[in-house]
Amino acid sequence: MGFFSWIVFGALAGWAANLLIGGRDRRRGCLFSVLVGVVGAALGGLIYRLATGKEKTFDFDFPSFGVAVLGAVVLLALLRLVLGGRRDHRQSRDRL
Fold it and tell me: Of 14, 33, 49, 82, which is most buried by a Cβ count within 10 Å?
């Protein structure tokens, strides 16, 4: 895929992952969705390779999109675990 295709593919995968994860921080913006989608696609490819032993080539098709969304969901869940505790701590401290 070309550079522009990766941007579009990443934006769609990041948007879909944001819809699946939900929550208060669901609306972070287009650039965040693109970054999560592209990094999530790479992470999804790694997960796919570890699970099946086969390398995943990303084309504009549904299986590739599913792998990219899966990686983006994993990435968002990891970000929520790492950053979620800090955010809750700051919010409770601000209330005092």
Answer: 14
